[in-house]
Amino acid sequence: MPSAEHFALKYLRREALPTAFCPGCFNGIVINALAKAFEEEGVEDLRNYVFVSGIGCAAWIPSPFMKVDSLHTLHGRAIPVAVGVKLANPGLDVVVVSGDGDLGSIGLGHLVHAARRNMDLAVIMVNNLVYGMTRGQQSPTTPPGLWTTTTPYGSYEYPMDVCRLLAETSANYVARWTPAHFNRLKESIKHMLFRRRRGFRFLEVVAPCTTYVSRRRGLRPGEALKELLRKSVRLEKPGKPGSGGPGERIVVGVFKDEDKPGYLDLYYSYVERARRGGTHG
Amino acid sequence: MRSLLTGNEAVAEGALAAGCNFYAGYPITPSSEIMHIMAERLPRRGGVFYQAEDEIAAINAIIGASWAGAKAMTATSGPGFSLMQEGIGYAVMTETPLVIVDVMRAGPATGQATKPAQGDVMQARWGRHGDQVVPVLAPSTPQECFDMTVRAFAIAEELRTPVIVLSDEFIGHGREVVEIPGRVEVPSRRRPRGRGEPPFDSPDPRVAPPMPPLGEGYYVLVTGSTHDAYGYRDTRGFETHYRLVRRLWDKIWLNMDKLFDYEERNAEEADVGFVAFGSTARSVVKAVEILEARGVRAGYVRLKTLWPLDLRPIRRLAEAARAIIVPELGMGQLILDVERAVRGETRVVGYNKVGGGEPIYPSELARFALEVLGRA
After folding, report:
1. Distance (Å) from the C-alpha of residue A135 to the closest C-alpha of chain B?
2. Is residue B316 part of a domain?
3. Distance, in angstroms, between A230 CA and closest chain B CA?
4. Tens digit of each residue's pLDDT (9 = 90 or more) over B196-212
5. Host domain of residue B352
6. Is B242 domain-assigned?
7. Of the candidates A28, A254, B183, B315, which lies 20 to 30 Å from B173 by C-alpha distance?
8. Predicted ipTM?
């Protein structure tokens, strides 16, 4: 019998719905991409997953909306909590979902070190270009010129490219898409969660805050989506120019895709060495 | 089994005996030996040792590990302990069993990294923002480092709370004989009886709610925000917040009888009484012997639990004594409790010194007591 229910509901806590996100927020698209990825992979329920998030709008994606074990941690600390969960129970699939402020500013040290260690985690950073939850302050990814509540005359700092930063570490997988690239986004999630099962896998989703970026710039969500598509440049075709406005170009694509041993692989061989009584490599 | 151990070694042995199977930490003097031992022992016995990128990562990693079912601990010292405070607050709010060992050194700031102090009493109790209570145990000897670390795990598991063991550099690096029992029993946290039993509420505030394991379909919602019995955030209502914070508060305070521990001598007949803890209490024991040999009726209360604190033993000491001396390796924090207990009815004087690894010698304490009695 065909179900009349939306397919995503089996992954969601219906008592927590509707979400608290602003109308037009791209977090809904991220949830949709996650749900579609699980659905297409035939995942019945998320009981073997643990989602860990920090503080900020993106951190609400799993908690409380997804029907999964979730830890909503301190600001910036999703990664170390996720590390603790994964190392203490490697059988769990641990996924971090948080924002650019949480992972790229206050939690950046943890992010870089988890990537350096090729820690066995999948991390989705939803980059809304500002601190949305606290009313639109400048974040480390705010493009030059963008109005924010702490740069009311236009942001003047150099923004950070988290993907390029992490691609320089030992991370196995680094990719960036936008909500306008829905299929690519979903395929990246599937790749991170089901094809590459080990090491550090990182996906950035450039999803400008509907309320504090797009609306402020006079763009409705649909127009913001179209703009994302226009501004996006494929990593493998860097020649194509961007099309004006803050964050002239968004370089999208897969920055890195490897299958090196992850942290746990290395730790297990270390443990073997320890058990054999050796002290030197 | 009898072994000659430093306090730091005894902490590590106690943790391993208690079943600690996850350690995360960051190097810092004078606690690093605890980390070295865990690094050597845990991987060989199926546990996890993790050297974090900083103390913030260490405390948060043991929070994650604890939720994943591990008996988890970290050890640190002054500056690292400061960095861990927010994480400890999160562990209180989420009712996460943890053991945190702080081997105190001279501060503030970097201070004297290799020198002892007792200046973290108030930070151990009140270092986090918001209302919360965390049990704080204070060993005086390597033997107590072992025993209290075991006890810290038992309390953490039973009450689903972080527990702090407040050692110092003297004890951490001092070496004494430690009796290690052949078998140590530490209870494990209770799991929910069924899917319906709330993981964040309890009909009896003295009893911790059950802790659901991850990965078994409980779909547990863990959050540091104000939450209801099932973990759903309520960041607006009075009722949910007051109910939660009140219960977390009562969970520790109403278990005072279980948590509070002390040792006393001549408490009801001393002319001069001492109140002390940790390494300083060792000098107090000797000072009292010196005074007794000179015919002075002296006594002491040695606090083995610093929080929650039962003031009654201090009050009893004050009823007989003409003066109470509170020696501390610092400018005086415990003395505030003694003054609060005594309520002005007996003279309370501090004996304070800190820095350079200078202990408070028993002889100087005895001399000071005679002076105080002469003036009293």
Report:
1. 17
2. yes
3. 39
4. 899 999 999 999 999 99
5. 264-375
6. no
7. B183
8. 0.97
DSSP label at residue A202 = E
Could you tell me if B175 and B288 lie in one domain? no
User: What are A70's two structure tokens?
Assistant: 């979730």
Residue B141, domain member (yes or no) = yes
Tell me the pairing of strands B2-6 and B175-179. antiparallel
CB B147 within 8 A of CB B320: no
Residues in chain B with CB shorter than 8 Å from the CB of A13 are 219
Q: Cα separation of A33 and A13, whole Å?
A: 17
- Distance, in Å, from the CA atom of A131 to the CA atom of A212, rounded to the nearest integer, reads 9
| Cis peptide bond N-terminal to A18, omega within 30 | yes
φ, ψ for residue B178, nearest 5 deg: -125, 130
Do B12 and B157 belong together in one domain?
yes
pLDDT tens-digit profile, chain A (281 residues): 566 899 999 999 999 999 999 999 999 999 999 999 999 999 999 999 999 999 999 999 999 999 999 999 999 999 999 999 999 999 999 999 999 999 999 999 999 999 999 999 999 999 999 999 999 999 999 999 999 999 999 999 999 999 999 999 999 999 999 999 999 999 999 999 999 999 999 999 999 999 999 999 999 999 999 999 999 999 988 665 554 445 678 999 999 999 999 999 999 999 999 999 766 54
> B335: domain CATH number?
3.40.50.920
Which residues, numbered 88 to 117 in chain B, qualify as contacts with chain A under a Cβ-Cβ cut-off of 8 Å? 90
Give kind and range of the element (H or E) at residue A97. Answer: strand A93-99
Q: How does pLDDT run across A35-67, given as a tens digit for each residue?
A: 999 999 999 999 999 999 999 999 999 999 999
Nearest to B52 among A71, A80, A85 (CB): A80
Torsion of CA B330, B334, B340, B342, to 10 degrees: -100
b/e map of B212-233 (b: 16 or more CB within 10 Å)? bbbbeebbbbbbbbbbbbbbbb
Of the residues B71, B222, B235, the best mutation for testing chain A's interface (the one with the most A CB atoms within 10 Å of its CB) is B222
- Residue-wise pLDDT for B65-77, tens only, equals 999 999 999 999 9
Positive or negative, the Cα torsion across B163, B169, B172, B174? Answer: negative
Could you say which of B179, B197, B222 is where a domain stops? B179
Q: Which domains does chain A have, with CATH numbers?
A: 26-275 (3.40.50.970)
Q: What is the DSSP string of A174-191?
A: EEEE-TTSHHHHHHHHHI
Measure the CA–CA gap between A12 and A45, rounded to whole angstroms: 10
Written as six digits, the tokens of B119 are 């200046």
Q: Domain containing B100 — which CATH number? A: 3.40.50.970
